Amino acid sequence: MLIYQYVILTLLLPFPAIWNLIKQKNRFNYNWWAAFVLFVLLLLFIYQAGAWPYLGFNWRYITPGIYVTAFLFLFWKKSKNNSAQPKSSSRRGAIVSTIFIVLFAYTNFEIYSGGSTQEDAIELAFPLRNGSYTIMQGGDSEIGNAVHRYNTPHSYAIDIVKLNENKKRGNQLFSKNVNDYTIYGDTIFSPCDGTIITYFDGVEENIPPTTNVKVRGGNHVVIKTGDIKILICHMQKNSIAVKRGDTVKTGDVIGLVGNTGFSIEPHLHIQAYKTERDVNMMVPIRFDGEFLNMNDIITVESE
Predict the structure, then answer these.
(1) Is 202 left (phi over 0), alpha (psi -120 to 50) or beta?
(2) Which of 59, 80, 133, 213 has CA 20 to 30 A from 49's CA?
(3) pTM of the model as a whole
């Protein structure tokens, strides 16, 4: 399962860079500075795009701190013991480091820039309450929103999970019990005023990480507000509190978060689109004025 590789990558990605930095024979030449810049870029990358919903967001700060401390200690120790004569720099090493610098500089910029959009966005109320939530996939980025954009180019869809007291999205790294996921069973509230134009129920819950590819949206509703449609997916079976033709107001109960359709674990999927000449055009979403990006955290108090 890719999630395990994702977690391992988050924890170990900076290790080769720090090793390459420490083993440099010369200090403060091009190779050394290239290795140092790459080390910083890798720390920034895991900070922005790491598997923090799985590991816990406390580790988002601890892990880079451990690597920085290790680098400072090893650098001090090697400086103290190093009496060797300087050696010539490796041209191949410089080329490799430069390539990776360009790659991760672009990757970091891509993720960071995904936190804003130049497109006109629809303003919605956040559809969940009473807790801290994070964005697993979202934003205007081919990396931070890769899962959605793989299937739908230019998608601004958002996947939301809830964090527990340890700032993790569940009690285990990966559990087959849906009740181990903090968001499972959370009440979903209408993010806008509108009319229910699509209603689909009766899909059974998935046992993580299995998915239902036949009904990708699982139990879902579509709310039409003006010329824009809001799709809310993966809801619990028999939890939907509205039906087609109903008029809803912002804050009305829609149903419960589930794990149905093309979903490997409980989460809330929401996206906005409008139909022009039978073509669905994706629309960005701002929740209470904020355009959310991958690993953003939203804390909502119950009313």
Answers:
(1) left
(2) 213
(3) 0.90
CB atoms within 10 A of CB 71: 18
List all residues 6 or more positions away from 93 whose beta carbon is below 8 Å from its beta carbon. 20, 31
DSSP string covering 131-170, please? Answer: EEEEEEE-SS-TTTTHHHHHHSTT---EEEEEE-TTS-SB
On whether the CB atoms of residues 98 and 92 are closer than 8 A, the answer is: no
Between the alpha carbon of residue 61 and those of residues 44, 52, 66, 113, 209, the distances in Å are 11, 10, 9, 21, 28
The answer, yes or no, to whether the previous bond of 209 is cis (omega within 30 of 0) is yes
Give the distance, in angstroms, between the CA of residue 88 and the centroid of all CA atoms in the same chain.
43
For residue 84, pLDDT beyond 60: no
Separation between Cα atoms, residue 269 and residue 263, nearest integer Å: 9
DSSP state of 181: B
Locate tokens 């890719």: which residue? 2
Query: What mean pLDDT comes out for the span 149-170?
Result: 93
Distance of CA 112 to the CA centre of its chain: 12
How does residue 21 score in pLDDT terms, banded at 50, 70 and 90?
confident
What local confidence, expressed as pLDDT, does residue 226 receive?
Answer: 94
Indicate the SS3 state at residue 255: strand
Instruction: Annotate 271-298 with DSSP letters as a single string.
Output: EEEEEETTEEEEE-EEETTB---TT-EE
